[in-house]
Design a protein that fits this description.
about 500 residues; mainly alpha; 20 helices; globular
């Protein structure tokens, strides 16, 4: 365990307070912007920013929105535990911006403008003929897996706050929830996006600063690596996990991002194609820098702190050891920013899913703009408080929870989204079969209820099942209505869909 002096903790707390003041200011500013929106435009402004986001904001929404407690705490912790084999696996996430915007960005941008989509599931409702089964399972998948993902983020942030400031875990949880609530509930997607852009800059500065300090502390590197080899030779080889398992992790962290609603929401917000292309390049650069540096530093940390009791504390431990207090406070702010940006993006997805795909679809279809405005703010607040409540009793390992959540979302949404964009024959029956089959298979495999994973992450077998079901069921059932095909694949499209 690492020890921190009182004066150092005070300096860290002061730095974090300054960061928090900036976050509150962003939330208040975003609320003023949202107050100017007309009632009939409020929902579009709140959930998509009226589709006017520039390249840096979109790049950060995806990159910082997906790189979270896993990248900044759990990932380095896993590198501390298993060594360089985790480095090989996690580099796949460097392509997340390309995976989302390159695979579906242009088509989703066009279609979302045609249908006025304000949530991830709005796209599914449009493509799959407003099928209620898809709507119900879509809402369930997002609430279960994204909700669990969100709880892990809150826990990671509060643990970080506790270990670096010496203040109670519950106080850290209150501060994290409060800052997210201010930016998300008051400012909607604009508040979250503005905060994410600010947090992304802080994250990058913090990561580079930590890297310089850690490498300087670990010099000479030859001696550090000799220490790692003396602890366990597997710590310095990228091949201690089997190749099939590595491939399954590359699928998890490199392929299925379009199945993650809080990442794919970026495709609903960019202002034009040029901004989308620029955000792919910008986002790829940021994620590559964050991933390489943090995982490398985490793996070196095993030589610095071989007896660490909780692996997820390796980044706080290194930070408090190699950096002066105010710079350690900056790192705390950077990692906090990573977590809060992810949580903010997720809460907007959860809120938009509830308002658009549960409340407006099943509970009150005739709700007017003023009513929806109140429901949007109220649901964002209630969702944040629910996640806060679930995080009060923290789970043990963050990275495994995050991997489970990513796998679950990818299993449910990947093939129905990808085939829906590129294959006209995909219909609501195939999509429903693929979503349900993929999600159920993943839960059975990942939960060890059935021995079906063949030594890989359960997402591999669940994607195979989901893909087969989506294709086969679509082929043997009626084609999608002609109007839907025109909306998704035609240059002209109808306002009303009536025939297959």
């Amino acid at each position: 365990m690492f020890e921190v002096g009182r004066s150092a903790r005070i300096a860290i707390i002061i730095t974090f307070i300054i960061y928090s003041i900036f976050m509150i200011a962003i939330g208040i500013y975003s609320k003023k912007v949202m107050d100017k929106a007309k009632d009939d435009k409020y929902m579009d402004e709140y959930f998509t920013g009226n589709r006017t986001m520039g390249p840096l904001v979109v790049a950060m929404m995806i990159a910082a929105g997906l790189c979270s407690a896993g990248t900044f705490l759990g990932g380095p912790g896993l590198a501390w535990s298993v060594g360089l084999t985790w480095v090989l696996a996690i580099l796949a996430q460097s392509f997340m911006n390309f995976a989302i915007l390159g695979e579906i960005g242009k088509k989703v941008g066009i279609v979302s403008r045609r249908i006025g989509a304000q949530s991830y599931l709005d796209l599914f409702s449009s493509r799959y003929n407003n099928n209620k089964l898809i709507g119900i399972f879509g809402v369930l998948a997002i609430l279960i897996f994204l909700g669990g993902y969100d709880v892990a983020q809150f826990v990671g942030g509060a643990r970080l706050f506790e270990s670096m400031t010496g203040l109670p875990y519950i106080l850290g949880l209150v501060i994290f929830a409060g800052l997210v609530l201010i930016t998300a509930a008051l400012g909607g997607i604009k508040g979250v996006a503005t905060a994410i852009a600010f947090q992304g800059v802080i994250m990058t500065v913090a990561v580079v600063t930590l890297f310089v300090g850690a490498i300087k502390y670990a010099m000479p590197l030859q001696q550090t690596y000799e220490t790692l080899i003396s602890i366990d030779p597997k710590l310095v080889t990228p091949w201690s996990w089997s190749i099939p398992y590595q491939i399954s992790l590359w699928i998890t962290y490199g392929l299925v991002f379009i199945g993650l609603p809080h990442g794919a929401m970026g495709a609903l917000t960019y202002k034009d194609t040029k901004s989308m292309h620029q955000s792919i390049i910008l986002g790829g650069g940021f994620v590559l820098v964050w991933s390489i540096i943090l995982i490398w530093v985490g793996s070196l940390g095993r030589a610095m702190f071989p007896e660490l009791t909780v692996a997820d504390q390796i980044i706080p431990a290194i930070t408090m050891t190699v950096l002066p207090p105010w710079m350690a406070g900056l790192t705390l702010a950077g990692v906090a920013g990573a977590i809060q940006s992810t949580v903010g993006a997720m809460i907007i997805v959860l809120s938009s899913t509830f308002v658009r795909n549960a409340y407006q679809t099943f509970i009150n279809p005739k709700a007017d703009s003023k009513k929806l405005k109140k429901v949007a703010i109220a649901s964002t607040t209630i969702i944040t408080l629910c996640i806060f409540a679930l995080a009060i009793n923290p789970p043990n390992s963050l990275q495994y929870i995050i991997t489970f959540a990513i796998g679950g979302l990818g299993s449910a949404f990947f093939w129905p989204m990808l085939l829906g964009v590129y294959w006209k024959r995909t219909n609501e029956y195939g999509a429903a079969a693929g979503m349900i089959g993929g999600m159920v298979t993943y839960i059975l495999g990942a939960g060890n209820f059935l021995n079906i994973t063949m030594g890989m992450n359960a997402i591999v077998i669940s994607l195979i099942i989901s893909g087969i079901l989506t294709v086969l069921v679509s082929k043997v059932t009626p084609k999608a209505p002609k109007g839907i095909i025109m909306i998704w694949f035609g240059k002209t499209y109808p306002s009303v869909i009536t025939e297959r």
